[in-house]
Design goal:
The complex is a heterodimer of chains A (about 110) and B (about 110). Chain A has a single domain (about 5-110), classed as Immunoglobulins (Immunoglobulin-like, Sandwich). Helix content of chain A is about 0%, strand content about 55%. Chain A has no helices and eleven strands. Chain A has strands spanning about 5, 10-15, 20-25, 30-35, 45-50, 55-60, 60-65, 70-75, 85-90, 100-105, 105-110. In chain A, strands 2, 4, 5, 9, 10 and 11 form a six-stranded mixed sheet that branches. In chain A, a hairpin with a 6-residue loop joins strand 4 (about 30-35) and strand 5 (about 45-50). Chain B has about 110 residues and is mainly β. Chain B has a single domain, classed as Immunoglobulin-like, CATH 2.60.40. Chain B has strands at about 5, 10-15, 20-25, 30-35, 45-50, 55, 65-70, 75-80, 85-95, 105, 110-114. Chain B is globular. The mean pLDDT of chain B is about 95. The chains are: A mainly beta (about 110), B mainly beta (about 110). The interface between A and B is medium-sized, with 24 and 27 residues.
Chain lengths: ~110, ~110
């Protein structure tokens, strides 16, 4: 069945260092979304990527969608303590039910001052 | 503009009992999806409701059932609770005609089964 693999599971960085999380699918995705979940909170939508090779930026966050639409990454430049949380990628495939997303396991980011 | 609201926030139940969780979608949304998030895992799709019907179901047993009301709000029912049902239950709403539009999640209901 459809599955989205995400690595690493954990990442500990010092404030100011960069952070990257990667997401992979064995089959071509229709689109991929990224969510952030703060400790004790709920997933909050960050971005959606639809086009092959798409790159989107939100301040210090850069999101990429692979040319084959099978992988994606989220890169944070110069992390801050406010970046702490778990970052999830969530994919959907053509033909899957609208609104049904397959979430990766998430990358838990810890930032120490 | 109210976002997605869920109740209760926390619940403690005993094995074998039944539980009902409630969700009101974001204003303007007509589709409600339920996800289960175990500790340290990503959300797992349970099912989705649109126009008061279950549209698709994830890999969950029949003990999990739901309902959507004419005002788009929804309930998740779990019968014969097992210890493994302990998790954060998330309701997410979206607008069906928005295609693969982003999901708006509620704060979740933390269910503990003892």
């Amino acid at each position: 069945g459809q599955q989205v693999m995400q690595i690493p599971q954990y990442q500990h960085v010092q404030e100011g260092e960069d952070f990257t999380t990667y997401c992979n699918s064995s089959t071509t995705l229709s689109n991929i979304q990224w969510y952030k979940q703060r400790p004790g909170g709920h997933p909050v939508f960050l971005i959606q990527l639809v086009k092959s090779g798409e790159v989107k930026k939100q301040k210090r966050l850069t999101f990429q969608f692979g040319e084959a639409k099978k992988n994606s990454s989220l890169h944070i430049t110069a992390t801050q303590t406010t970046d702490v949380g778990t970052y999830f990628c969530a994919g959907s495939w053509r033909g899957s039910t609208l609104g049904r997303l397959y979430f990766g396991r998430g990358t838990q980011l810890t930032v120490w001052p | 503009d109210a976002g997605v609201t869920q109740s209760p926030t926390h619940l403690i139940k005993t094995r074998g009992q039944q539980v009902t969780l409630r969700c009101s979608p974001k204003s303007g949304h007509d589709t409600v999806s339920w996800y289960q998030q175990a500790l340290g895992q990503g959300p797992q799709f349970i099912f989705q409701y649109y126009e008061e019907e279950e549209r698709q179901r994830g890999n969950f047993p029949d003990r999990f059932s739901g309902h959507q009301f004419p005002n788009y709000s929804s309930e998740l029912n779990v019968n014969a609770l097992l210890l493994g049902d302990s998790a954060l239950y998330l309701c997410a709403s979206s607008w069906r005609r928005g295609g693969d539009s982003p999901l708006h999640f509620g704060n979740g209901t933390r269910l503990t089964v003892t």
